[in-house]
Design brief:
By secondary structure, the protein is an all-alpha fold. It folds into two domains: about 55 residues; about 80 residues, no CATH class. Helix content is about 75%, strand content about 0%. The protein is built from seven helices and no strands.
């Protein structure tokens, strides 16, 4: 009842305590506050549980992807705007990564960049800051080859 009046009827706890005292049911304000605190804690745990489950199912982000995300965005956008053929795209990735990427990470970077390029579609091209018109022109060219 206290929680309903607090949240459903917007009655402050001090007014509830006064009303209960007038009805010969004195309840200390601190007791009411503790009850509301317990209700809020239980609701917080319950509402956060689905988000925690989703977060656990996603796992940790790939540190490699996090480290090179800007470089991946840059090379993918450049390849789309250049409208290169598949073989030429692989060569451009290798040449670009030789200049921009640490030697120990170049091979993996090239693999990730090629995988990202081949899996590019309407639902993910915006992450590379590519305009819809650029993507459409590249897609026509890429699928024709």
């Amino acid at each position: 009842m206290i929680a309903f009046e607090k949240f459903g009827q917007h009655q402050p706890l001090n007014r509830q305590a006064e009303r209960y005292a007038l009805e010969d049911v004195p309840i200390a304000l601190s007791t009411m506050a503790d009850a509301i605190g317990s209700v809020c804690a239980a609701l917080d745990e319950r509402s956060a549980a689905p988000y925690a489950a989703v977060r656990q199912s996603l796992g940790e982000p790939d540190p490699f992807w996090l480290r090179y995300r800007e470089q991946l965005r840059e090379i993918i956008a450049d390849l789309v705007r250049s409208r290169l053929a598949r073989k030429d795209a692989a060569a451009r990735i290798a040449a670009w990564s030789a200049k921009e990427i640490d030697p120990g990470d170049r091979q993996r970077f090239a693999e990730v960049a090629e995988a990202e390029l081949t899996s590019l579609h309407e639902g993910n091209f915006a992450r590379y800051r590519i305009r819809p018109s650029e993507f459409a022109a590249w897609r026509q060219f890429w699928e024709a080859k």
